[in-house]
Amino acid sequence: MYGHGAIVSGPLESLIDLLMPSNVEEFDQNYVFSFLLSARFFIRSYELLGTLLESIPDAEPLERIVPLLGVWTKMFPYDFRDERMMNHVKHIVVRCADTKLANVVPQLLCALLARLTELENHEEELKSYQSSVDNKTDTVTWPTAAQLAQLLCRIERKLAKHVGPEEFVQCSPNLLKDPNREDFTPKPSTSGSATGTVLDGKKTCNLESYLEWSARLRLLVANEILKCQNIQERNKQFELWSGAAQYCLLVGNYNSATAILESFDLPPVARLQITWSKLSSTTSQQLDCMQRHAEGCGNLWSKQTEQQHGLGGEAAAAAAAAGEKRRAVQQQSVTAGPGSSSSSTSSSKPTTSGSTGSIVTRSGSNEWVVLPVFVDIIKLALKAREDCCVRLPNGHINMTAFDRMAAIVGAFTKHMSQVNQTLPDVGEYGTLCHYMQSCKLRN
Q1: What is the CA radius of gyration of the chain?
Q2: Do 110 and 145 contact (CB within 8 A), yes or no?
Q3: 99 phi and psi angles, rounded to 5 deg
């Protein structure tokens, strides 16, 4: 079924056939991404690849499936952690030997191997930061607010970069039940959803690791404030973290900024009435400004996604209005400067692009949203996938829902792959991660 020149629905078998058009020039990468992302509700990835292979007679060359394999290994490399998938790949290699594709397939596999090796290294690094008797860090010497914000941004980029698009489909629907509890440790989904779909269990936990990072950051900030012995020390901690949150906003790291601001709302921190009353007027004004700014971040990313993928004319107008509002708030933050005269950040003030001597700068409008609020992306994806896993009354697969899911997830993963990656120093990164693992929320 077509609508306005696009596929809106169809039986599973027909949609599978469209993955390998007879004319390679008709190969549609957008369709491939949408289908491969959400088709896993109805057919396992290794079964899909096997079905495609069986549809090509042994005497026929694999010229139609190799372009698909190239896109598949690039967009969904984590699918190939499955031994059953790799068995099909081995079969493809054998059938392509002594043909003109003999040199093409090894290049695809080299790129795939590099990506999976990078993932393995990342996972091993995360495991090394897990709390244990040997690696607990008792104290941390905090840098300035600007330096802290930059470290948080680099860690966020590193974590977000490794989240695979299929993880939004495979994650547990109960993932966000209670993310503020102290023992929040999200686990990968290990079975299909309640609708009776055939989802394979997750073979990665990058999405859960990133979500856990945000929860631990909230606990860390609250813990650092609560463990102070007197009001003066607490004031310094408030101003350090509020300054870091403002710097995060200025460089477009909404995820860290939101986590820090949410930590101030945790009951043990919110009830510190005397400490709140002693904060400088500048810090209080900045907190109010940042709270108003952060509240619209999720809606802003949603509108930007709709605008980029043409999901509605009204959404585009709303996105433009939201962008103007966001820029106005950011300019107000720039004018105020992060931190009061007593703040540890008073020696470093952010400036707009083109100025000199600034630690935090912005270089273009496309960098305003560098790290969106991750929970908001997950909420959008969880809502969208409800339509993906339900067949239409005529038994067709809902490709419109697939495209909507692809727009949300694809916007995030593509955006994070394009963000300039500046890795943090291993020492300071490891120290902070070790310390966060041992944090317990004080009362």
Answers
A1: 24
A2: no
A3: -125, 175
pLDDT at 299: 54
d(CA 384, CA 409): 10
Q: Are 436 and 187 in contact (CB under 8 A)?
A: no
Torsion of CA 265, 268, 274, 276, to 10 degrees: -20
Surface-to-core class of residue 313, CB atoms within 10 Å of its CB (0-12 exposed, 13-18 middle, 19+ buried): exposed
pLDDT, residue 165, reads 95
Secondary structure element (H or E) that encloses residue 9, with its range:
strand 9-10
d(C-alpha 38, C-alpha 84), whole Å: 19
Going by the DSSP 8-state scheme, the letter that residue 360 receives in this structure is: S
- 279-to-9, 282, 298 alpha-carbon distances in Å: 58, 8, 29
Sign of CA dihedral 406, 411, 412, 414: positive
Phi, then psi, of 10 in degrees rounded to 5: 170, 160
- Position 92, amino acid: I
Low pLDDT (below 70) residues in the chain: 130-138, 177-201, 280-369, 420-430, 437-443
Query: What's the rounded Cα separation, in Å, for the pair 38 and 48?
Result: 12
| Residues 326 and 296: beta-carbon distance below 8 Å | yes
Provide the pLDDT for residue 394.
Answer: 92
In this structure, the dihedral spanned by the alpha carbons of residues 218, 224, 228 and 231, taken in order and rounded to 10 degrees, is -50
180/22 Cα distance (integer angstroms): 52
What single-letter DSSP state applies at residue 200? Answer: P
**Structure token digits, residue 225:** 């404030």
- The token duo for 143 is 């840098």
Please give the single-letter amino acid code of residue 110: C
b/e string for 153-192 if b means 16 or more Cβ within 10 A? Answer: bbbbbbbbbbbbbbbbbbbbeebeeebeeeebebebbeeb
**DSSP string spanning 369-402?**
-SB--HHHHHHHHHHHHHHHTS--TTS-EEHHHH
Tell me the helices (H) and strands (E) count for the chain, helix number first.
Answer: 19, 4
